[in-house]
Amino acid sequence: MAYLLGLNHENPKLTTTAREIRRRIMWSIFILERRLAGGQEDLITCPKNAMHIQLPSTEKDFELAISSRTGPLVPTETHRESSSMGIRAYFCRLSSIRHEILQYTRRVVSQGANANDTGSELLQLESDLLDFKNSLPEALVLNERNLNLRAFSPQMRRYVMLHAAWHQCHCDLYRLMIPGLRDSLSGEILRNTSSDFMMYCQTQAVDHANAFFDILQMALRIGDEIMLDPGIKILVYQCTRIITQASDIGLLGTKSETLETLSKLTNAAEILLPMIAVNQSTSQLVSCRADPIVHTLLLLCRIR
Q1: How far is CA 172 from each of CA 6, 47, 204, rounded to the nearest angstrom?
Q2: Considering its fold, how many domains does the chain have in total?
Q3: Are 91 and 162 contacting, i.e. CB atoms less than 8 angstroms apart?
Q4: Could you tell me if 66 and 187 lie in one domain?
Q5: What residue numbers bound the domain in which 102 lies?
Q6: Same structural domain, 112 and 227
Q7: For site-directed labelling of 92, which of 9, 71, 74, 119 has its Cα 20 to 30 A away?
Q8: Could you tell me which of 270, 158, 156 has the C-alpha nearest to residue 213?
Q9: Which secondary structure element, helix H or strand E, spans residue 109, and what is its range?
Q10: Do both 107 and 212 map to the same domain?
C-alpha cells in the first residue's frame, strides 16, 4: 500500500507538512519492519535502495511547517550533516545498521562459520557504529547537560533510547562469542576461534552492557519515565543475560567489580518489575514467571 501511494518517493507538489507526514509514515514502516525481521532479509519489503526520500526533519521544523533538507539514509563523504537532522532521523540510520548486524550474526551462527573468517565484516560493522556516533551533533551527544535539558521534555525518552539502542547494537554484534547465550556460537566453533579475538568480543559485549546500565542510572536520577518505554524491558533483559553469563565464565574482573556490576542489574530490576506488575493481580504476576524477562527480574530481586 505504501508503494502504491508512492510514500517512498518525494512529491514536490504537496505542502511541506504533507510531505513530512508521508516521510514519517514510510520511515516508521522501515523501522518497524526491521525490528520484526530480526535480521531475516526475506522478510524485508522496504530495502534501502527503495527509500527515495530524505530522512525525517526535527520536531520543531515539522510543527512549524518549515521546509528543510535533512540527509540520506546512508551518509556520504560529500554530504554535510544538516541541522534539521533530529533524533527520529538518527533512529532510522541506527535501525538500518542494527538490521545489518543481525543479518551478520544470524548468518554466522546458522552456517556455523569460523568466526576468524568473518572478523573483517564484524570490524566493518563496528566501524559503522563508531561513524554513527561521531556523526551526532553536539546537542545529541550523551552527557549530563543534554540529558538535563530534556528532563521535562517528551524528547527525553527518545534521547535516552537512541544511546541505549547504540549500545544494544554492540551487544548484538559481540554476544555470539559468549558461550551459553541463545544466539552464541557452538562450543566447537568457539574453541577454534582465536582466543584474542574471542576475548575482545566478550569484553566489548560486557562493556556495552555495562554502559547501558550506566545510561539507565543517569536517566533515573532525573525520573523513572524512561522505564515506561517498552524497549527498556527488552534491553534490561538482554544486557542482564550478557552480564550474568559473563560472570559465570569470569569476565567481570575482581570480586568487588563483579558485585558492583551485579548491583546495577538489581537496582534496574527493582525499579522495572513493579512497573510490569502495574494493574496485574497476584495470579497474573505468578503466571508471568514463565516469561524469561520477568523470570530474570524476579531472580535478580530475589523474590521468586
Answers
A1: 33, 21, 11
A2: 2
A3: yes
A4: no
A5: 85-251
A6: yes
A7: 119
A8: 270
A9: helix 87-111
A10: yes
73, 211, 160, 181: CA torsion to nearest 10: 70
Give the C-alpha separation, 78 to 119, whole Å.
29
- Using CB atoms within 10 Å of the CB of residue 99, give its burial: 0 to 12 exposed, 13 to 18 middle, 19+ buried: buried
Per-residue 3-state assignment (H helix, E strand, C coil) for 234-280: HHHHHHHHHHHHHHHCCCCCCHHHHHHHHHHHHHHHHHHHHHHCCCC
Q: Is residue 77 part of a domain?
A: no
In a domain, 223, yes or no: yes
Q: How far is CA 245 from the centre of its chain?
A: 20
- Grid look-up 574471542 returns 198
| CB-CB contact of 34 with 21 (8 Å) | no
Set of cell numbers at residue 75: 551518509
Per the CB < 8 A criterion, the answer to whether 201 and 177 are in contact is: yes
Block residue for cell numbers 562493556 = 207
Q: Is residue 171 part of a domain?
A: yes
Looking at residue 216, its amino acid is: L
* 99 within some domain: yes
Average confidence (pLDDT) per 10 residues, the chain, 304 residues: 89 94 96 92 91 93 90 74 83 97 93 81 96 94 93 88 96 93 87 90 94 88 73 84 85 75 72 55 43 52 41
**Judgement on whether residues 24 and 105 belong to the same structural domain of the protein:** no
What pLDDT, on a 0 to 100 scale, did the predictor assign at position 104?
95
